[in-house]
């Protein structure tokens, strides 16, 4: 019974080594977690900026493709006009 409870220097060294190894693993995992979290924050920031840019592009597209703007440009730049109702022919299939 006394042999089981006695701590030999080898057992103490082995336990200390295992505790040190475990502590190093914890430190390594904590560092890896912090690196990944930093990367996640950077990617979320980039996603936010890209979403903002996409929203601006959608607004610009809708502004440039507005029907009244297209009609005004076709009349001024291309000298287009609407056809007379008498010159429109309906083709039946």
What would you say this structure looks like, in words?
This protein has helices spanning 2-5, 9-64, 67-76. The radius of gyration is 37 Å and the shape is rod-shaped. 75% of the residues lie in helices and 0% in strands. It has a domain at 10-70.
Write the layout of secondary structure elements.
Blueprint: H1 2-5, H2 9-64, H3 67-76
Radius of gyration: 37 Å
What overall geometry do the principal axes of the alpha carbons give?
A: rod-shaped
Q: How much strand? A: under 5%
* Annotation, overall tally of beta strands: 0
Low-confidence stretches: none
Number of helices: 3
**Major sheet: size, sense and barrel closure?**
none
Helix content: over 70%
Mean pLDDT figure: 91
- Give the SSE string: HHH
Q: How far apart lie the N and C ends?
A: 106 Å
Structural class: mainly alpha
Output the keywords:
about 90 residues; 3 helices; rod-shaped; mainly alpha
Summarize this structure briefly.
The chain has 93 residues and is mostly helical. The chain has helices spanning 2-5, 9-64, 67-76.
